[in-house]
Amino acid sequence: MLSPARLRHRYHDAVFGKPIYTADLVPSDAVYVKAVRSRYPHALIKRVDISKALKVEGVLRVLTAADIPGVNIASTLIPDRPFLATDRVRCIADPIALVVADDPLSADQGVEEVVVEYEPLKAVLDVMEAIRDDAPSIHEGGNICRHYKVRKGDISGGFAESDIILERTYRTPIQEPAPIETEAAYAIPKADGGIEIVGSIQNPFYVRNGVAKILGLQPENVNIVAAALGGTFGGKSDEAPWDVSAMAGLAALTTGRPAACIYDRDESVIAHSRRHASHIRYRLGASRDGRFKAAEIEIFYDTGAYASVGPLVLMRAIVHATGPYDIENVKTDAYLVYTNNPTAGSFRGFGNPQAHFAAESHVDLMARELGMDPVELRMKNILRRGASTATGEVLDEEVSLGHALQLVTEKIGWDRKDHHVSPEIKRGYGVALVYHGNSLGPEGEDIAEAEVVTTPTGHVIVKTSLTEYGTGSSYGLAKIAAETLNIPEDRVIVERVETHTVPNSGGTFASRSTLMGGNAVRLAAEKLKKRLEDMARESGREGISLLDFISEIGEEISERAVFKLPVCDYDPEKGYGRAYLQYTYGAVGVIIQVDVQTGVVRLEKVVGVFDVGRAINRQFVVSQIEGALTQGAAYGLLEELITGKMGKILNPNFADYLVPTAADMPSVDVVILEYPSSLTPLGTRTIGEPPICGPAPAIANAVHDAVGVRIYSLPITAEKIVKELKKS
Ligand code: MOS
Predict the structure, then answer these.
(1) Chain segment 508-522, per-residue pLDDT in tens
(2) Which residue among 275, 346, 440, 692 has the greatest number of ligand 1 atoms within 8 angstroms of its CB, and so is best to mutate?
(3) Over the range 406-432, which residues count as b (16 or more CB within 10 Å of their CB) and which as e?
(4) What pLDDT band is residue 667 in, cutting at 50, 70 and 90?
(5) Can you tell me the distance from the alpha carbon of 361 to that of 298, in angstroms, rounded to the nearest whole number?
(6) Are the C-beta atoms of residues 711 and 430 closer than 8 Å to each other?
(7) CA-to-CA distance for 725 and 683, rounded, in angstroms?
């Protein structure tokens, strides 16, 4: 159990190495399991020979699909991904066999000795090649895994009314979530035939249900314990934690010993989900006076070999694809496309950063075409209260976009731009607006359950399935319980998350912890308060403080509550209806310096203004915005996971894959707006993800402002800028 006092100092704890992560908790008698993964991006498996591997000293077992007691499927939405490949591999991440050994080194040696005979097939590694008729089919039914549409108004009429029509294509690369801790889990077989799995697990109930199916157990016989998480950023939101948990679980069940599965860095990069690479065609029509008339957008997201949560990522992309603008006529088609790249999936922002890069670059470019100020053009077209989004959702609450944009332009000195630094260095200014649907919306019905329990020691325990991975959300839950019960925060304890003991509050994703969990905790705490007050009255202790009464009764009193959001009526096939119940709005501004000879971009200032509805804890809100802006700026300038011609990832480590360091970031200015949402008692809006959408387009716009060239693909590297400067 973690006390809020500890959680409050969590960042310091992490700096001093205090949290104990899964790899350090593995029992000393545990065996280790390592996966044999495909050598080819696309091949038939002709033969697997494990005999040599079994002779390696220390190797105990080599497991293949034939050893799976349950179902050989490890997929969230579409049953397209086997847990262990049998006859075919579709990307280099595909596991074919598992080597179980006394120690990790022996397991590695065993992996080397497993002989797999392949018949290589033609691989397709580019999303636009994968949709061609002559492309090899990666799954039955072709390579288009999903096609979603949005249709609003009269698209040809809208373009006919336009004075200027601007068409461009934008591309974004694969971004690696780069958690500091790699995926890890260990399993302990239980006497009753069940199993306990401890791991770096973001969504314990999802992992429990997925792993139970693979292991042929009832979910109730699988206890998932979430250990400290050393970061996730969405990479641990979908299927990678199932894999390590099921691999450890299978090894434990077959050997009868505790078993651990811990990914090395390169294995982690190859095997977990990453941001979808994208190709977005954007066509926008506007009147001479700067009103947007029509937007026609085609979106292609590379899901890699399997769908994972890609259909949901695509849905978020298509809903937000027009940017936060009031446009009467919209036609959008979004395609999720199979390739032989390793699988993409959930990653902070969930499809929205790609869409925002295209939309917010394009709007800026339109301003230049019209000879208008980019801020003025945005102000003219932003969504306001009463306007309808691309999917026809009428915004019936105050929309704070204008306020955010005004503050951001003031903060970066938009009206007193000074482009001159030196003859070689030009300064540039850029802005981008952000909007991000809260919680699940069209992705599914959203429900969270929470429990609060008094203890004989005079404490209150909060139980949810929401894990803490650095956002401070657990502290938020504790604070909400303390405020509702009117007891000191240090009397609230946030229970360790394990599926046997906490209610199912849904996943720790979609930035929903405080929105969904916070409201569920509040409802449960209100019930508890009322019950305790009734008990006090009945026992003649009316007027006693709740805290004194909790200590006095000396027993466990528990209340549970469910918080549920109304269901959205969005129809993904038609692309129409209410997609999200509320949005987070914000604006990002950057000042950059570009070296005109080398093309090197240096960030001088980054500003984020975000409307969080209500800040439960300002320090954590600021940290989330700073972190997301940093990860977003790195998406703009540095990060790109590169797949080579053989479908291998060429930079699966932090020497070759550039994550930002303190040296890459200037100080970040954060302004918090609080336009409370009327949807929930707490009034909060989500904030963990939205700011990541802003920096990349703001930087692209600032580069254009500084040196007059437009970069249409991320990351915005020095090479690309120099190439464009030479042309101009
Ligand atoms: Mo997140 S990308 O919803 O874990």
Answers:
(1) 999 999 999 999 999
(2) 346
(3) ebbbebbebeeeeeeeeeebbbbbbbb
(4) confident
(5) 15
(6) no
(7) 48
Helix axes 618-637, 473-485, angle to 10 degrees: 160
Query: Which of 76, 314, 350 gets mutated to test ligand 1 (max ligand atoms within 8 A of its CB)?
Result: 350
3 state SS of 329: strand
Residues 6+ apart with CB under 8 A from 192: 221
- pTM for the structure as a whole: 0.96
Angle between helices 352-370 and 310-320 (to 10 degrees): 20
CB 72 within 8 A of CB 213: no
Q: Is the pLDDT of residue 8 over 60?
A: no
**Calculated CA dihedral for residues 194, 198, 204, 209, nearest 10 degrees:** -30
Distance CA 335, CA 619 (A): 39
From the CA of 98, how far away is ligand 1's center (Å)? 28
Please confirm whether the linkage preceding 79 is cis (ω < 30° from 0).
Answer: no
Check if the beta carbon of residue 236 is closer than 8 Å to that of residue 9.
no
Count of residues making up the chain: 728
What pLDDT, in 10s, does the model give residues 50-94? 999 999 999 999 999 999 999 999 999 999 999 999 999 999 999
- The span from the CA of 592 to the CA of 604, in Å, is 5
Rama region for 472: left / alpha / beta (φ>0; ψ in -120 to 50; rest): left
Ligand 1: list residues with CB < 6 Å: 234, 237, 346-348, 350, 509-510
Amino acid at 185: A
CB-CB contact of 389 with 383 (8 Å): yes
Range 186-195 average pLDDT:
97
CA of 234 to the centre of ligand 1 (A): 4
| Closest by CA position to 451, among listed 507, 503, 517 | 503
Average pLDDT score over residue span 37-60: 98
Tokens 């390793």 label which residue? 342
Cβ atoms < 10 Å from Cβ of 623: 17
Tell me the CA–centroid distance for residue 632 and ligand 1, in Å.
15
CB atoms < 10 A from the CB of 140, how many?
Answer: 6
Please give the single-letter amino acid code of residue 242. Answer: W
Tokens in use for 183? 């995926």
Distance separating alpha carbons of residues 301 and 148, to the nearest angstrom: 12
For residue 599, report the distance from its CA to the centre of ligand 1, in Å: 34
| Axis-axis angle for helices 374-381, 352-370 (nearest 10) | 110
Q: What is the helix, strand, coil percentage profile of the chain, to 5?
A: 30, 25, 40
The whole-angstrom separation of Cα 564 and Cα 413 is: 43
